[in-house]
User: Fold these one by one.
Assistant:
Number 1:
Amino acid sequence: MSFWEVTLFLWDGFLISLLIFAVTLLCGAPLGLPIAFCSMSKCKPLKAVSKVFVWIIRGVPLMLQIFIIYYVPGLLFQTPVFSHMDRFFFQNYSISDAGRIVAVLIAFTINYACYFSEIYRGGIESISRGQYEAGYVLGLTKSQIFRKIILKQVIQRIVPPMSNEIITLIKDTALANCIIVCEIIKQAKELAATKAMVWPLFYTGVFYLLFVGILTIVLGQVEKKLKYFRS
Amino acid sequence: MALLTVNDIKKNFGKTEVLKGISFSLEKGEVLAIIGSSGSGKTTLLRCLNFLELPDVGTITVGDKVLFDGSDDTTLSDEAIRQNRLHFGLVFQNFNLFPQYNVLQNVTLAPTLLKKGTPQEIDATARGLLEQVGLSDKLESYPYQLSGGQQQRVAIARALALRPEVLCFDEPTSALDPELTGEVLRVIRSLKDRDTTMIVVTHEMEFARNVADTVIYMADGVIEEMGTPEEVFGNPRSEKTKAFLQGTQNIY
Ligand SMILES: Nc1ncnc2c1ncn2[C@@H]1O[C@H](COP(=O)(O)OP(=O)(O)O)[C@@H](O)[C@H]1O
Ligand SMILES: [Mg+2]
């Protein structure tokens, strides 16, 4: 296999990595918000449930969570749920391991939503009470205060920790290969096994590095844009 | 008839009695200065007037409208509390400007959200107020680019933009470097000339003496002494007041 063919073969895998990255970000980031609000809720039971949930998700390896999501429904219903998905829902698609990808997406989304929720919570709780009270004495509603006063300050504060998390996410996608999802490292291992080529495994690092480079520039730009005020 | 009547306000935090029955009234255009040592309940009183805290007992009446009645068991809705707040304005010790908005936007934000006029009217009013507090050249500045004195003047303009019937100040100069207190006190004094009804909690005795129509000395959650500046400063009746005023003089 030529260098070019190897690159294309790995790129196929990297597209799966990017898919996991994008879906986790697009679903996990919004899902983190209700979790954060539950963790800050005045309703004690809700708060407790939410905190325990976040503790479990953050306290257990993501790889284990992927296994649990993938295998447990099968054990419960006595039939491999995600493998059926391959056959029934995704037979028109070229992705042969669609069911497994869905399991990975669910596990990643829940896991990252919990990490994001803690970042949101930290950001929201770091805003001084004076900002809320200044809004209250001006006769604003709670929702106006949150949307027009608090939100942007929170966003400014959470961009750096979110950037860290987002950069970690693209590298975490490699965990998908624990249930044989054909992300980039799985592809490279395939080459090592079938073609006795080891160097593609190391070559995958270049894909990650380039993508992280782009992310760093984009996120740095966002951070800079929000630096116009200080709070 | 008095513009504001506060009758027998009491407020506890857990077991601590912070306000133990505060009563006073205020005429339109009157300036009330509240003095007293730290912990005597001055901030809590202003917070009750602005409905950031709800008193346990007592009534708050503006004009002929009873805004709060402690003996009424029905709890005020969020909306009722919000409406009540609109009668009052509050200028905080540490300004609490909105950092992501520039000076002009800080002043126009609330009137815009509360639809207090057309955007043109709101903008014109805000510019007028900012000129009044001497900040016409800072309209585009962000709070972090301003000195403490300038920030406090923005906060005053922001509060005035909603035309509150009673404007409250909680130690408006305490967070400022001494050389910046003058500019803020001058602005507050200028408001008196425009017939603004004000309650000013302050440690600036000269200011209280020269600007206030009425002075209240608070100690341990009660009004220890109330009267004209001449009475309170010139001829205090209570021993506590005498001791307090003696103490403030010794500092200088
Ligand atoms: N939210 C609160 N919870 C408990 N105690 C409070 C609270 N706010 C004020 N206090 C107490 O009430 C007393 C009066 O406080 P404050 O009104 O701030 O006095 P001042 O403004 O005159 O210094 C203080 O002893 C303070 O510790
Ligand atoms: Mg105080």
Number 2:
Amino acid sequence: MGKEHSIELRNVTKTYKRDEFTIPVLTDLDLVVPEGEFLALMGPSGSGKTTLLNLIAGLDNATQGSVIVHGQDLGGMSDGEITRWRSENVGFIFQLYNLIPVLTAFENVELPLLLTNLSKRKRRDNVMTALRAVGLEGREDHYPRQLSGGQEQRVAIARAIVTDPFLLVADEPTGDLDRKSAEEILSLLQQLNKGFNKTIVMVTHDPEAAQRASRLLHLDKGKLVHDEVRNNLEEGVASS
Amino acid sequence: MKFLHYVLRNARRSPVRSLLTIGAMSMCLALMMILISFLSVNDAVASSLRTYNRLVVMSSQGFAQPVPFARVNEIAGMKGVKHTTTFAWFGGKYHDEPMPFAQFGVSADSIFSIYDEFTISPDQVKAFADDKMGCVIGRKLAEERNIKIGDPLPLKGDIYPLDLNLTVRGVYDGPGTRDLRMCFFHWDFLNEELKRVSKNSKMTDNAGVVVVKCDSADRMVPLSKEIDNLYLNSATPTRTQTEEAFNQMFAEMFGDLRGMIRTIGLAVVMSLIFVSGNAMAMALRERTTEIAVLKAMGFQRPLVVNLVLTEAILVAFIGGLIGALGTKAFFDVVDLSKHSGGFLPFFFVPWPTAILGLGASLVIGFFSGIFPALAAARLSVINGLRKVV
Ligand SMILES: Nc1ncnc2c1ncn2[C@@H]1O[C@H](COP(=O)(O)OP(=O)(O)O)[C@@H](O)[C@H]1O
Ligand SMILES: [Mg+2]
């Protein structure tokens, strides 16, 4: 595992200012996520999981300390640079899918590719490959409202992987799904992790979902309280 | 632009709101087009007169003051003059309608050589010339009142103490920028009648104004000066100007109106900016999360600004197309002058006015979109994703 392809948080503190109060969210956090890891983040509501995810994904800046990804300090980049960096390196998966309702599945997945210089034909190939990877070929002309929640989330995953980023961040990706759809999504994430070596950081409330990850991290009141590596997991098997 | 597709879909996202914005836009612009056209039609007509090399000689005291008939022949003999005619306003009633159309006492021999943009058959010109009590009327007047050649056309004197019982001998047609509802009759006939019924010397031998056809455009300015200089020290000095300037003189009587219409137009543009800006801001507020997702995905701020601006301008431009070009097309087909009771000899939306309206819609689109666009670009991604805004 190349060190430069890992995510490294050093002494990260994040506080929010509301009026004259300073709210500490993350304090003195150290974390290394090697490339190819499937990390599950758990913890009570308000413990700072989303905040941590945002820092790793380059959506937010640490108040103190540094976030180093690919050997690059995200804190030192301008808004334009970090935005470009995200478009090349990170795929986002949300609890409520966040597809664009007025665009078809195909168009939703194509959206991140519009930021590249790829030709129309190449874009089309990539979109179809991504849709195939999530098992949605034949659904490309459907609008989000014509799809089930599980299918919508799969379109969202296709959108996240279509630019071939090394990192996928998922904030409670199964939080709004029934058990069966949730299992499918988790299997898909596992497959992307194992088959395509995607680094995945996933926030979840669901202990069963967390079992699918290769490493489990517990966060409480802005501190890491439990760190467990589960190297011996078999694909699709929820043990322990 | 690869994103045009997305912009179009967004514009159609809440069709009712977009349609209401477009509706407000096109209706206000249509009203503005009509208002502005009342003035700009005059400019368009005046400038279209430029090619005909005509001068109008009026009294230096104003166009309502008499010009002695002798001037018509005197000026006809000057260098560079092709034809001259009297052009005396009669202003009579037709079947008790006050001033339903313009009536002029003219020289039957020269009137259609001077106004050579009018089309009329030589037979009819001859029939008119041969009948002292004959007259020629415009095509629109003939059509609207179903008047045929040979029909009587009785005019009751209003300014003059006499009636003219004319007979229609011809019908002229012409371009849309010309009054096609005029009635031309023999000035000689009017003058003879006047001499018969009254000995009022102020009314007889009055040419009204003299219209002069020059043989070249270059002669117009020097000739005007020569004419005015010639009569400068006479009892009835003249003021000679091009037909274009003469027409503009009437438009200038609306001088104050011009400023007012400009102010109204500006107010309309401002309020349309507020209306569309509000609609755009509301549309974007609903899309807060979506914009945050786009930015998370890597959409740069300038791109976000562009997408929102394009959408706002697109919606406004559709309103502009309907409002400005639609109004133009409408009045190209529907002749408003027919219903104006003689107040407007013609009405249409000139091209420059329609383009102005279209340009206004672009400006409105830009200013209604720029603030929501900047707000969208500034939107914090994490707040947008949390939906705390
Ligand atoms: N923009 C913000 N301004 C102020 N406080 C915030 C902001 N975002 C998050 N917080 C606070 O930070 C804490 C952690 O939030 P979050 O990371 O969303 O927790 P989790 O995802 O674990 O539920 C919460 O107490 C929350 O209220
Ligand atoms: Mg959260």
